[in-house]
Amino acid sequence: MPGCGQKGEIMAIHQNTRAAWRTLRLEPRKAAVLEAYHERGAMTDRQVAKHLGFHDMNTVRPVITKLLQADVLVEVGDAKCSTTKRTVRLVYITEGWK
């Protein structure tokens, strides 16, 4: 049955849900991560951590993952990490959340 959130089903987020979510008081780290994307645009997880003054990737990666799962952020491509030389995700704010 469509819209029931069955496994593997992509559900659209209603505009009222987005509006309500924006009015919630965000945890400080979530707010900081979103502000970083507003200020700098698309970034890798490492770039977000560096922008916020963190040296440990685990300070931002769980937050970014939760925001991706909530469709607030979206992977927009990939980039080569200047530190690890590996290809990593490039993330930005989902169009409806800007």
Summarize the helices and strands and which ones pair or pack.
Blueprint: H1 15-23, H2 28-40, H3 45-51, H4 61-69, E1 73-80, E2 87-93
Antiparallel strand pairs: 1-2
The number of domains: 1
- Strand segment tally: 2
Whole-angstrom Rg: 15 Å
Unreliably modeled segments: 1-11
Content-based structural category: alpha+beta
- What's the CATH H-level superfamily name? Winged helix-like DNA-binding domain superfamily/Winged helix DNA-binding domain
Can you write the helix and strand succession as a string? Answer: HHHHEE
Helix percent reads 25-40%
Termini separation (Å)? 31 Å
* CATH architecture descriptor name: Orthogonal Bundle
Major sheet attributes: 2 strands, antiparallel
CATH C-level class: Mainly Alpha
The number of helical runs is: 4
Percentage of residues in strands: 15-25%
**CATH T-level fold name:** Arc Repressor Mutant, subunit A
Compute the average pLDDT.
Answer: 81
Q: What's the overall geometry?
A: globular
Strand order of the largest sheet: 1-2
List keywords for this structure.
Arc Repressor Mutant, subunit A; 98 residues; 15% strand; two-stranded antiparallel sheet; 4 helices; alpha+beta
What does this structure look like?
The chain has 98 residues and is an alpha+beta fold. The protein has a single domain (29-97), classed as Winged helix-like DNA-binding domain superfamily/Winged helix DNA-binding domain (Arc Repressor Mutant, subunit A, Orthogonal Bundle). 39% of the residues lie in helices and 15% in strands. It has four helices and two strands. It has helices spanning 15-23, 28-40, 45-51, 61-69, and strands spanning 73-80, 87-93. A two-stranded antiparallel sheet has the order 1-2. Strand 1 and strand 2 (87-93) form a beta hairpin. The termini are far apart. The model is unreliable at 1-11 (pLDDT under 50).
